[in-house]
Amino acid sequence: MGIVNQQERGYGGALLAGFAAAQAPYIITMDADLSHPPEFLKDFWKLRDEADLLIASRYVAGGQADMGAGRRILSHILNRTYALVLGLKLRDISSGFRMYDRNVLTNLDLKARDFDALEEILVKVYINGGRVREVPFHYQARNAGKSHAKLVKFGWAFTKTLARMGRLRYSK
Fold first, then answer.
1. Domain boundaries, position 143
2. Domains of the chain: total
């Protein structure tokens, strides 16, 4: 496969374009800055039949997160809030290092177009009966480059998505 051009803005738009272009039975999402090392893919591959969505988790037993204190605190707040409000027994809802069975990605009708697309995908897979499993992962923050995350913008997007996912989660 060659380069995929995204038609819609943001991280969520990039995910949608990649999902639409992918033809394999399993789809991996990961950061290109090597904070998600490709060697970990063997761990996903071994567990591919045990879940429809595998999440590389920094916060389950055996997982680890090497990042600054401020980012770690915000990450924990985000993950615990989503898990509590949405009744999910997961610890790392915001991890973008994932492996999907392509069948669970069909007909998700995603609304989010930023990083909050990760939570929307997870909730929709979960409420549609998909099996979700976290795999212990040692996250190491990037050594170079700069995050494109804007705290206020992300906070607002995550809040809107949490409200929308709460309505969706409890409407069934």
1. 10-171
2. 1
Residue 111 lies in a domain: yes
| Residue 96: CB atoms within 10 Å | 16
Q: What is the mean pLDDT of residues 34-50?
A: 91
Q: Is the pLDDT of residue 52 over 90?
A: yes
> What are 127-170's pLDDT values in tens digits?
889 999 999 999 887 655 555 556 677 778 788 888 988 988 88
Say if 128 falls within a structural domain: yes
CA dihedral 104, 105, 106, 107 (to 10 degrees): 100
Q: How many Cα atoms occupy the beta-carbon half-sphere of 113 within 13 Å? A: 6
Going from the C-alpha of 57 to that of each of 79, 94, 122, 161, 168, the distances in angstroms are 11, 9, 13, 21, 24
Is 5 within the bounds of a domain? no
Q: Is the predicted pLDDT of residue 63 greater than 80, yes or no? A: yes
